[in-house]
Structure formats: structure tokens, C-alpha cells
């Protein structure tokens, strides 16, 4: 296995800090190829168990950052601890700062109409030299791919952030990147909603003690099903499957 890369339920995850992820992203933007980064949380890993296309995308991505306390806990149980989390929000903020310094252009695709624009405005307010290549609410449906590719190609971004929620955003990127060939594309989930102030984010201390999932449940009770998948079901599956494997081995 690649150095600094572990596997949880067959999904590769890189042991990487936020600073290292930004350095890798910077290198990707400059190497002349096109790349995809995924921020892998427990829901991703559970979805990948039942969705082979999503699993294939996660296995082929250039970098999978650990996102979510459950991922860190599972990694520790498996004897392959990770150093920390790198979430879509953190990556987006770090990339915006980097882009403002280096002159990279960022395109924001997805979320409800007007949200990407509000998120872009929040980023520019913080880093006034940041260049936004474009914003488009769009749609993750394959029949809309062609039209969206035209819009994005004309904007010529270095970084494409896609907020269609998983697995649609990762599948959208994998399907369209061979045509777009944007240096770096990342699925960022609810990041635009957060940047636009539509959804509050858990305070730092709640995130640090691993209770962001409880905060999100309190803020958006409609997510309960997803949160059960993300926390108890995921940890149970890891214990069950990996435990059995260890006994056999
Ligand atoms: N979204 C969208 N089009 C869709 C479905 C979802 O633009 O057809 C957006 C939605 O508005 C939100 C984001 O995708 O901004 C999903 O955020 P969520 O926190 O659910 O992401 P996840 O945790 O599923 O990756």
C-alpha cells in the first residue's frame, strides 16, 4: 500500500494534515494533469459499500482526505491512526487563501440558486485578491452535463468546487473531468451553504470532541437517517467486518 495511505472497509484514506493537503493541491494545480480530491467521511464509506460506481471513484481519486470523527476512531481501532481531519470547509478556505496568493481562479458549482454566489462573496470579502472564475447552481443530472461543461470550460478555472452532496458530486466530477481537464476538482458537500450563512457550523470545541454529528442533528433533524448511517452503523460495520477478518487471519 502507498505510504501514508490506509484503508477502511476497502476505501483508501490518506493520512494527511490540512497543510500537507494544501501543498499537495498546489502541486496538482501545477503538474499539467487533472485531479480529483475527495473528503471521505463515514457516510462516503457506507455508500461505497453498496454503490460500486462511487467505490470506483474513491479508489481512483488522487487524494482522499479523512473527514469526520468516525473515520479517525475507526482508523485508531484498526491500528492505523490518522493525524487529523481535513474537511471540505477547511479545504475550501485553505484553497481560497492559496488561490488569492497565487492567482488561481476558482469556480463554484452547485447548491441552491444564489448560494454559490453568496459563498463566493464571503470568500472574496475575506481574501479580496481572490479571483472567482464563475458560479453556477446547475444540476447533477447527467443530461445537464454538456451544458455545464460549456459554461465551466469558458470560465477556465484552476480549481472547481462542486456542491451536489455525495455521491452525486464525486460521480459528476469523475464523469466530466476527462472532458474538462481542470487541474483540481473537489466535491465539497454543504460547504457553500455554510459559507453563505445558510447553515450554522458546530463551534470549534464541539468539533474537537467529536460531536459535530450531534450538532448537525440538532440543527437539521431531517438528517437523522444519514447520521445513523454515519456514526453507529459505520462503527458497527467496521468492528464487525474487520473483527471477523482479524479472527480469520
Ligand atoms: N445540492 C444541489 N443539487 C442537488 C442536490 C443537492 O445543488 O440536486 C446541494 C445542496 O443544496 C447542498 C449540497 O448539495 O448545498 C449538499 O450538502 P450536504 O451537506 O447534504 O452534502 P453531503 O454531506 O451529502 O456531501
Description of the structure:
It is a single chain. This protein is an alpha/beta fold and 249 residues long. The protein has a single domain (5-195), classed as 3-Layer(aba) Sandwich (Rossmann fold). The protein is 54% helix and 16% strand. The chain contains twelve helices and eight strands. It has helices spanning 18-30, 42-50, 52-60, 69-77, 88-102, 115-126, 145-155, 168-180, 191-195, 204-208, 212-219, 224-248; strands at residues 5-8, 11-14, 35-40, 63-66, 105-110, 131-136, 159-163, 184-187. The strands form two sheets. It has a six-stranded parallel β-sheet, sandwiched between helices. Strand 5 (105-110), helix 6 (115-126) and strand 6 form a beta-alpha-beta unit. Helix 4 (69-77) runs parallel beside helix 12. It is globular, with a radius of gyration of 18 Å. The two termini are 18 Å apart. Bound molecules: uridine-5'-diphosphate. Uridine-5'-diphosphate binds next to helix 9. Uridine-5'-diphosphate is lined by residues 110-112, 140, 163-166, 189-190, 192-193.
Topology:
Elements: E1 5-8, E2 11-14, H1 18-30, E3 35-40, H2 42-50, H3 52-60, E4 63-66, H4 69-77, H5 88-102, E5 105-110, H6 115-126, E6 131-136, H7 145-155, E7 159-163, H8 168-180, E8 184-187, H9 191-195, H10 204-208, H11 212-219, H12 224-248
Parallel strand pairs: 3-4, 3-8, 5-6, 5-7, 7-8
Antiparallel strand pairs: 1-2
Helix pairs in contact: 1-5, 2-3, 2-12, 4-12, 7-8
Amino acid at each position: 500500500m502507498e505510504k501514508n495511505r490506509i484503508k477502511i472497509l476497502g476505501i483508501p484514506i490518506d493520512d494527511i494534515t490540512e497543510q500537507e493537503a494544501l501543498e499537495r493541491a498546489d502541486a496538482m494545480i501545477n503538474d499539467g494533469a487533472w485531479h480529483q480530491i475527495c473528503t471521505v467521511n463515514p457516510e462516503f464509506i457506507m455508500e461505497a459499500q453498496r454503490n460500486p460506481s462511487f467505490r470506483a471513484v474513491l479508489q481512483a481519486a488522487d487524494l482522499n482526505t479523512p473527514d469526520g470523527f468516525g473515520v479517525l476512531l475507526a482508523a485508531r481501532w484498526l491500528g492505523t491512526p490518522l493525524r487529523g481531519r481535513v474537511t471540505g470547509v477547511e479545504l475550501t478556505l485553505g484553497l481560497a487563501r492559496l488561490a488569492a496568493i497565487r492567482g488561481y481562479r476558482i469556480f463554484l458549482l452547485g447548491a441552491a440558486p444564489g448560494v454559490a454566489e453568496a459563498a463566493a462573496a464571503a470568500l472574496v470579502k475575506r481574501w479580496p485578491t481572490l479571483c472567482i472564475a464563475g458560479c453556477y447552481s446547475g444540476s447533477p443530472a447527467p443530461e445537464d452535463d454538456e451544458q455545464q461543461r460549456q459554461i465551466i470550460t469558458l470560465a477556465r478555472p484552476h480549481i472547481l468546487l462542486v456542491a451536489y452532496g455525495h455521491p452525486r458530486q464525486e460521480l459528476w466530477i469523475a464523469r466530466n473531468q476527462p472532458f474538462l481537464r481542470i487541474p483540481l476538482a473537489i466535491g465539497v458537500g454543504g460547504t457553500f451553504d455554510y459559507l453563505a450563512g445558510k447553515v450554522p457550523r458546530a463551534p470549534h470545541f464541539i468539533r474537537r470532541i467529536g460531536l459535530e454529528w450531534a450538532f448537525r442533528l440538532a440543527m437539521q433533524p431531517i438528517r437523522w437517517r444519514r447520521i445513523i448511517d454515519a456514526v453507529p452503523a459505520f462503527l458497527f460495520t467496521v468492528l464487525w467486518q474487520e473483527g471477523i477478518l482479524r479472527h480469520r487471519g
